[in-house]
Amino acid sequence: MLDLLYYIYFCVYLPVLLARGKWHRGFGQRFGFFSRELEAALSAGENIWVHAVSVGEVSLLDGIIKGLKAKYPGSRIVLSVTTTTGHELALKRYGTAVRVIWSPLDLSWVVKIFVRTIRPKAYIVAETELWPNLFSCLAGQGVPIVIVNGRISDEAYPRYRMARWFLRTTVLQASCLCVQSKLDAERFIALGADPRRVSIVGNLKFDIVLPGSVMSGLEERRLFGLQGAQQIFVAASTHPGEEQAVCEAFALLKPAFPELRLVIVPRHPQRAGEVEGVVGRCRMQGVLLTALKGALLGKNDVLIVDAVGHLIDLYRIADIVFIGKSLGLPRRGGQNPIEPAAFGKPVVVGPHMENFRDVMRAFREAGAVVEIARADQLAGAVKDVLSQPQRRAGLGARARAVVDQNRGAAERTLNAINL
Fold this sequence. Notes:
Blueprint: H1 2-19, H2 36-43, E1 46-52, H3 55-60, H4 62-71, E2 75-81, H5 84-94, E3 99-102, H6 108-118, E4 120-126, H7 132-140, E5 145-150, H8 157-162, H9 164-172, E6 176-179, H10 182-190, E7 198-200, H11 217-223, E8 231-238, H12 242-253, E9 260-266, H13 272-281, E10 285-288, E11 301-304, H14 311-317, E12 320-323, H15 338-342, E13 347-349, H16 357-366, E14 370-371, H17 378-386, H18 389-405, H19 409-416
Parallel strand pairs: 1-2, 1-4, 2-3, 4-5, 5-6, 6-7, 8-9, 8-12, 9-11, 10-11, 12-13, 13-14
């Protein structure tokens, strides 16, 4: 019955996949079509299967993957990823140290092929990726299922509650649930999780490892078409509608800050052309990072990052950061504010940060974040921070302190995982 529902959904969704360019090279692997070389590689030795959906989860699981490699040196890490951007980042980050594959579609015959091919010692998945057929197949083979950084958002919880009769068996099949907070623990237990298997370990996002740069600050700025004296306003992980708000804010800021430069990093790089159009309609010139080729940005230029893997480098050199998906235009829930905070940068967010409920509580209590209620308040908030160097430094220092004080979830998670 479940497979029939998936087939119907897939047939309906197929035109959307094609229209959005999500039918990518390697998509056949999601149906269980492995090359002979890959099958041979996976069969040679013991595997721990780790799953990440996209860029965020690939970054989130970095500490866990490194910890697993240290804790179980005889096991290979097989990392399955769903999105093209996540897959690209995983290959760039891990190279040959981790075997990166595409994630399976949750069809019973597909997941059987994956489990038979990988023969995992354990399956480790981030947050709330509950796949009934996959979990059932893994449990039937006696493979431990571990949920790490488990959370159920305020927005999603009512839907999960309505489907708890369906999800109960799936949640029960998890042998270990490492969740972010007491509320998340209560929600998983309400859905059917065994309380004895639930551990509150904190948020893995606080355990971010900040990579160093092999370049000087000036060299790194030049990579993005920037010069040393310029202030940098980074709009990170933006969604449709937010680029318009950011450009309008930038236009208002330019008279007071002539050396300010705007860098927009859309959450989905394939939207770069769309973002370029938005910038043009705001009477500015959009410049794609892949087309920059060593040139410097002019005062009327806006850099649009159309490739993955650059956000951390931009956080390192930014003067102020706006976090996308927080204005609710139309997407809401927020993106990760912890990464720029870890670099000691002042962070501005919109009113919709529901996906980071506990994180935002910690930042608010410390006075380490600037919140705006509407898009038209963005320019004023950025101006207020940039025009007061002491306030800017204080916001950044408090933000970094919040991150440092909340580290340790990765170690607690690894201690809870016993394979």
